[in-house]
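User: Fold both of these, please.

Assistant: Here is the first one.
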Amino acid sequence: MNRVALYVRVSTTEQANEGYSISAQTEKLTNYAKAKDYQIVGTYTDPGISGAKLDRPALQNMITDIEKGMIDIVLVYKLDRLSRSQKNTLYLIEDVFLKNKVDFISMNESFDTSTSFGRAMIGILSVFAQLERDAITERTRMGKIERAKEGKWQGGGNFAPFGYRYENDILKVNEFEKIIVQEMFDLYLEGYGTNKIAEILGTKYPGKVKSPNLVKGILRNKIYIGKINFAGEIYDGLHETFIDKKIFQNVQEIYGKRANKTYKGDYNQKGLLLGKIYCAKCGAKYYRQVTGSVKYRYVKYACYSQNRSLSSKTMVKDRNCVNKRYNADELEQSTIDKINKLTVAELTSTTNLKLLDNRKTIEKEIKNLESQINKLVDLFQLGNISTELLSSRIDNLNIQKNNLEMELSKLKKVKTKKEIESKLQTLKDFDWDTETTINKIKMIDEFIDKITINDDEVLIHWRL
């Protein structure tokens, strides 16, 4: 006999007047259960509670009992008794009821998930649930736009901009951080770059100015001249400003000119090997060292331990390191030449090839173990083996299967000879003379894990 739970909910007097009262629902559901010869194991009642949310006491109690395996069917008088939200209704049916092998019946709509029609209705319900989610998203977006038009900050208290605090729905000035922001603008107008500003203010205000990126973000943020930026649109804000609009505009003009100069100057382009080179003597990374005058620039890759600037202290491993420095252009070109000369043999090894041969053997053995597990389950269902024997054998087989799957996971990271040949073909079609710097960096990353330098020895660690 199927064990059924009756779920009853009413939220307003109007619903009670329309025949949705607790007693009316309970009576109809009880009669339905008796007619179907169901065993009623509980009546879960939420009186005077809205169906818009899921945190209802009786509903939560019923979910707990479902998870304990005490219920086979959930019965309601009408679909909206379960929830007013299509999204929540679908969640309860799919992720709570059916997941725990519990069917759901709505008496009024003849909705029964144990039937093919009922299962088809779930698909229709999911469409309406998606429409509901989209509508909620759109209402939320429109609400935020309205807040922006009213001049209100969108980020909340946890994301208040540097120089402000979030209080009573409005941004209020943080007097201490306000001074730091004003100094950033002043220093930039005096000719200092964002890296130097971060270094100066990071020393002056420890823990407050942690990176050049913070400085860049502040110098470009219109929040400091009273504007709110939301969804690509700019609105007048209600908050107090403390950067003069003329000063802000001057900073933007200088920023634009410097950005354009950086774009044109080869010496300032991102290094192709940045982040890839390590010092074999002290373990520090290499960085791009730019020296010389504006007219004559010299760019080298050097060990970070040899960098005497304050901002690089955390990158230093040994101040006494004297590892060799390399001309940036020459090192990058020699690395590209080595990549272009790569062969399949250089990217593989006898050991790796043997491992690849083992992949099919392991995959075959995993399938064999899965087959043995399925056969044991079939024997158990037929009553040919006991629960204890089933559990013991399956545990043993699962241990073997898990070990093989871990080994297979390692092998799948090793590329086959065919995959490597395909990768090298991509390299042949790559034009180093015309491709962008970003694409060159991506191509180098495809083949090189890291580069270690020990004076005259430059060792490339290939990425298989």
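And the second sequence with its predicted structure:
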Amino acid sequence: MKSTKTAGIIIIGNEILSGKVQDINSFYLACELRKLGVDVKRISVIPDEIDIIGREAVEFSEKYDYVFTSGGVGPTHDDVTMAGIAKGFGLNLIKNDAIKNILYSRYKDLINSAVLKMTEVPEGSEIDFREEMRFPVVSFKNIFIFPGIPEYLKNKFSIIKEKFRSPAFYLKRIYLNCHESNIAEILNAVVKEYEDVTFGSYPVLGKPGFRVIVTAEAKSEEPLTTALDELISRLPDDLIVRVE
């Protein structure tokens, strides 16, 4: 079985850290990557500061198979993601002719020196452009650089997401009508016995009929089924609402 691909997500923007804008991009990416079989290991929110962006990009790139950044790629003074990544890896920013041609072909009337800043990318970057995109996806090494505007990020990611697909996760849920403390000892024991399966326990408020959801997840079906059957056999029947 192939090893699970890992990912880190870096959300860049003072507006997130100051509470002016709510981050929804990390949630979207985490959900989509999970569906693709990619295990998100870390999500970081950092300011529009070149040195911090550079350090974070290098660290994530070394630790994870894929890195996704969001924000800081526009034409204004605080759009410094490209500069940060370039500095972190000790490279220069260079003007990319392919991006320049796209801008002139699509947005000729809007071109000025600020807009042309968006043609600058770290040396060695790759460009992925499809007709459905407003602007190409720029990647450097294993770092995929996305805009902060959620609609644009979703559009781009949905177009290229298949390149990240890995073997899927298998997931089961047990709905229980009890307090989490009622099943904690049983669950903890099963968790220790089945290390290839990831369990989660989540109290739920305000839902009629159940108060806890226990999840079991694995990269193959057989260990998941075995572990789930064992957990169910140890739980009192009257607590189990349903399994799906």
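Residues 36 and 103 are 31 Å apart (CA to CA).
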